[in-house]
Model the fold of this input.
Amino acid sequence: MGKLLLIFLSIGFYFCNAQDIFEVKGLCIAAPHADGVAEFVKFVDEELGPNGINTLALRVDFNYAYESRPELRGNNPLSKVQIKELVAVAKKHNINLIPQVNLFGHQSWAEKTNKLLEVYPQFDETPHVKIPVKYEWPNADGLYCKSYCPLHPEVHNVVFDLVDEIIAVFEAKAFHAGMDEVFYIADEKCPRCQGKDPAAIFANEVNKISRHLEMNSKRLWIWGDRLIDASTSGIGMWEASMNNTARAIDLIDKSVVICDWHYERALPTPALFALKGLDVIACPWKKPEVAREQVKMMYNFRENASPEMKKHFLGMMHTVWSSASEFIKSYHSQKAKEINPFTQEACFRAMLAAIKDLELIGENTN
Done:
């Protein structure tokens, strides 16, 4: 009896050890359109769950029929019933479902102003910068995406209504606020922000959102690029900051989870966040080799870290920057031997395979 118990304990140990290689094995993708919910639920049920995905960040933004702020509904938004279908399939596979609404930056895209500034133009950090008829980058205004002014006295009354409602309908434990690529911050023409420290403004906005969430025991996730110094790292203006926000890394709440996205190389910046006491996830996109190197890097960080730092390396989250339907169709249409090596679908498969390989090594070691 004792030997049999020992065998069962040993089997349980190395299955748990395999599962514990990364706390987060995730996917970040746009929420499906209203007519794509059934397709998405099937994808979660037949692909994501069985392949070990345990975290799903869904970029919702205005693609929901908000009741608290109906003026901010997008075209043909998801209904509460449809969201509950997503919640149900996530629960079935023990997937942590995290809704995302872009806060601060990404309030416009190309020739389109997004819903918040369309309905509430008074929140615009740079109202003097007009959305062009034909967008091009670079441009004289330095316009990539618009930002809302975080010091406007009414902006949080509006955005927190969205945050609270979307968390409630998703029955979520965490919320992703985006906050990447914020180029318009502390604008010299903003009557509230001019002359103020961009790092302090950015950190204060992160903390304001984080503390609002903590009142209901929810956790904030954000992208990490504004917290990395582009000059000292040599990373550049997109995956790091050249507009003086990087010092915010020392000012934000330690409870914030950092999604550290790097798409061209497996840069070792997760160590920076861990050293600052922040939980961090590495995020690839469309280069399989980068995904494989990031998996290996995060594993090595965990294996070689002190107990104090090890706990901060949470794992991996693949990012998708097409519609959910486009990704699903491409994922299914590309057989393994036919996959274009430089697509987000190939990268996602590479990330999953690299994690599985490490799990098998962990099992064999035990």
Summary: Confidence is low (pLDDT under 50) at residues 1-18. DSSP finds twelve helices and ten strands in the chain. The domain at 25-365 is CATH 3.20.20.80 (TIM Barrel). The two ends are 22 Å apart (CA to CA).
